[in-house]
Specification:
mainly beta; 13% helix; elongated; 2 helices; single chain
């Protein structure tokens, strides 16, 4: 996390830089930046418990899963001060075993978040989560899906707000 903080600080510092008004016009044009982007890729080991309600013949089952989670963070700051934050999470071989049945499960899906803002407004935020536990055989695939979005206009008024959430077992 220290790397992310340092990268965000560096990106903000670079975006805040501007040539002085006394520099010759040719130098001001050559030195101006349109945007600064910082990106961090990481692999994080995951160990967690997931309850799959449709497993074990519909009685449900606790699954312990582990493996690497790919994480991508990106920050872009434009020369006008607009900020774009992007986050991406994706299982990369995360698997587990049911405590009761011993059935094998594979975690899959993708979670993305995109936020854009200016100080203090407008703000837009979109979050999409697809988290799936895919089990052996029929009837024990657990799927969680959520899409949420909100927009706050330049006056600080919420102009859009949506949250769709679903859980299915197949």
């Amino acid at each position: 996390m220290k790397h992310v903080t340092l990268l965000v600080f560096a990106a903000v510092a670079l975006a805040a830089c501007d040539t002085s008004p006394t520099a010759p016009a040719a130098n001001r044009e050559r030195l101006s930046l349109s945007a600064v982007t910082s990106q961090t890729n990481a692999e994080i080991p995951i160990d967690l418990f997931v309850f799959v309600p449709c497993a074990n013949g519909g009685a449900g089952e606790l699954i312990v899963v582990s493996g690497p989670l790919h994480v991508l963070f990106q920050v872009t700051i434009s020369n006008t001060g607009n900020v774009l934050l992007y986050a991406h999470f994706q299982p990369q071989g995360i698997s587990g075993t049911g405590f009761t049945t011993g059935d094998k499960y594979q975690a899959t899906g993708i979670t993305r978040s995109t936020d854009t803002f200016s100080t203090p407004f407008p703000i837009t935020s979109t979050f999409v989560n697809n988290f799936y536990m895919i089990g052996q055989g029929p009837g024990n695939n657990f799927k969680v899906h959520e899409t949420s979005h909100y927009t706050i206009n330049a006056n600080g008024e919420v102009t859009a707000s949506v949250d769709n959430f679903s859980v299915t077992c197949k």
